[in-house]
Design goal:
The structure holds 2 protein chains of 2 kinds. Chain A is an alpha/beta fold. Helix content of chain A is 40%, strand content 23%. In chain A, the strands form 2 sheets. Chain A has a 6-stranded mixed beta sheet with strand order 1-8-7-4-5-6. In chain A, strand 7 and strand 8 form a beta hairpin. By secondary structure, chain B is an alpha+beta fold. In chain B, 23% of the residues lie in helices and 27% in strands. In chain B, helix 4 crosses helix 7. Classes of the chains: A alpha/beta, B alpha+beta. At the A-B interface, helix 4 of A face helix 6, strand 8 and strand 15 of B.
């Protein structure tokens, strides 16, 4: 009986794991369109810190567009937080851009969930528009030379081996 | 009154001249329960339907003065009669008109002291189907036609837009052939992208530059309009709302009248000399291709798609109300930017503009009933 229960628990665990993997697997990765000029990064986050190309030179940047109404975004954010927590020495900078929500709502969400990722409030959606964002979440991977390389639409497990390969653009582009 | 506004109103005069076909009525009012191979989509003119459309906004979170703008049916033509509106609110309300673009809206303002702002409007409207056989086309003056070839912030008419349109119409001689070529180009190259929020942004230059032509009606039909305008053919987006199910059984071309919160839909028109404003909706062709069946249909000759592909060049179903045709609209009293288009309820407070697609803080309900 005990054996059966244990087997059942393992089964449920495996199913949950598969579900989680599947949920994260629903993304589409495309090359940044060559004919589309990337806008300059010149942003101020909610803490008042400014971000620009000069500071970010030599680092791979992940720009992640999200909102609190977007369930897949909320699913993805913890893995971005983990990526940041473990990538300090690997030259990856994550900038999250909340689209069209109020600073108070964003702050409340970030505090409640214990995130310390830089958050830029794109109050009118202008930054998203300049980066041609149509789908949430969307992430842009920008090489250490400041050139956007990949566009990823949909939630990603940023701690996965696959995602870590994408971030190697620093050395190859 | 501008010539553009006059052109919208003039259409009313030609209503009586439309042909009436009993067979067409039967086709238009019998819901299709047919299998894939027998799908029919043949909207015909002649039968007017009357609807009351009600929008109610409740602002759940206040911060200073709250302002709300609601679209009101503003189009009068040979396919729509916009009638009276009544409204109630615990704020100060005014019916406002943007005279340049003939846009009516209900503006409501709530002082900070109002704890739970709300505003509700009910508008009555008559609609009918459109078909390419209307025998009394509206004749527009040169100024109006020029107005509907202008560039807007989201519809540039030069650069990649013009280049794309020029390629699309290669070999076409008449305006009708050119419009047909652009319609076909859109159906062949753009696609319905369900993951796009709302009806899309309609930023056609970015769509073409990125090569990502996936979107919804405000993207796809804006692309159609922009391409037409860039080669000198007057065209316009018509922003509105689906009200009731399609009489032809197309679920993706239907509205659930009890809950129309996500039923906003924009269509398009192109002006052809001798035929007047022709109804166009390549976005709905793309929607049927992508979503009407479990399979993403890639051919416009598929039996589910073909009737819609054929009919939406020159026709559309009157289960939809048009709000307006405005672009780059400045809202009165607004502290926010101009709107690319005005199809959704809009609200603002001290923290800026609400996200019209996120109903948590800016809750709205839209419903309709046929009278």
């Amino acid at each position: 009986m005990k054996y059966r229960a244990s087997l059942c628990l393992w089964g449920i665990g495996l199913a949950l794991l598969l579900f989680a993997c599947q949920a994260h697997a629903q993304f589409e990765k495309k090359a940044w369109p060559k004919s589309f000029n990337a806008p300059p990064i010149e942003y101020t986050d909610l803490s008042g810190k400014t971000w620009n190309w000069q500071q970010l030179k030599g680092k791979v940047v992940v720009l992640n567009f999200w909102a609190t109404w977007c369930a897949p975004c909320l699913e993805e954010l913890p893995s971005l937080q983990t990526l940041q927590d473990f990538s300090d020495n690997h030259g990856v900078v994550i900038l999250t851009i909340n689209v069209k929500e109020t600073p108070s709502k964003i702050q409340q969400f970030v505090t409640r969930n214990g995130f310390n990722l830089p958050v830029i409030a794109d109050r009118q959606g202008e930054i998203a528009k300049k980066w041609a964002v149509k789908v949430f979440p969307s992430s842009m991977i920008v090489s250490a030379q400041g050139k956007p390389i990949w566009v990823v639409e949909g939630p990603v497990d940023w701690t996965s081996k696959e995602a870590s390969e994408w971030l190697k653009v620093k050395f190859t582009q | 009154m501008t010539t553009a506004r006059r052109s919208l109103l003039k259409g009313v005069a030609s209503m009586g001249a439309l042909s009436l076909s009993p067979l067409a009525f039967a086709q238009a009012t019998s819901p299709a329960t047919t299998p894939t191979s027998d799908r029919v989509f043949t909207p015909q003119t002649g039968k007017w339907r009357t609807f009351e459309v009600t929008t109610r906004v409740d602002v759940l979170k206040t911060d200073g003065v709250t302002r709300v703008w609601l679209p009101v049916p503003s189009v009068n033509s040979d396919w729509q009669k916009s009638e009276n509106s009544s409204f109630s609110s615990n704020g100060v309300t005014r019916l406002r008109t943007d005279s340049l673009q003939s846009v009516q809206m209900l503006y409501a303002e709530f002082p900070a002291s109002v704890d739970k702002p709300y505003v509700e409007i009910t508008s009555r409207v008559q609609t009918q189907n459109r078909a390419p056989t209307a025998n009394s086309p509206v004749i527009e003056d040169a100024a109006t036609l020029k107005y509907f070839t202008r560039a807007t912030s989201l519809l540039p008419t030069d650069g990649i837009v013009k280049t794309t349109a020029t390629k699309a119409i290669a070999g076409a001689n008449t305006d009708l052939e050119k419009v047909r070529a652009i319609y076909d180009w859109i159906v062949a190259n753009a696609w319905r992208e369900p993951k796009v929020r709302g009806c899309g942004e309609g930023d056609i230059k970015t769509m073409l530059e990125t090569g990502n032509l996936g979107g919804k009606c405000a993207d796809i039909n804006a692309l159609f309009v922009g391409l037409c305008r860039s080669v000198g053919i007057p065209a316009r987006d018509v922003y509105g709302l689906r009200l009731v199910p399609s009489a032809f059984g197309y679920k993706e071309l239907s509205g659930n009248s009890a809950n129309l919160k996500g039923a906003q839909h924009c269509r398009a028109e192109a002006y052809i000399k001798g035929q007047g404003w022709m109804a166009m909706d390549p976005a709905d062709v793309a929607k049927v291709m992508r979503l009407e069946t479990a399979e993403w249909i890639k051919s416009n000759q598929h039996p589910v798609v073909k009737p819609v592909y054929q009919a939406l060049f020159g026709g559309w179903e009157g289960n939809w109300v048009a709000w307006n045709m405005a672009h780059d609209l400045t809202l009165p009293q607004s502290k926010g930017d101009r709107l690319g288009f005005f199809m959704y309820p809009i609200g603002e407070n001290n923290e800026g503009r609400f996200d019209s697609y996120a109903p948590d803080d800016f809750k709205y309900q839209i419903s309709a009933r046929e009278i």
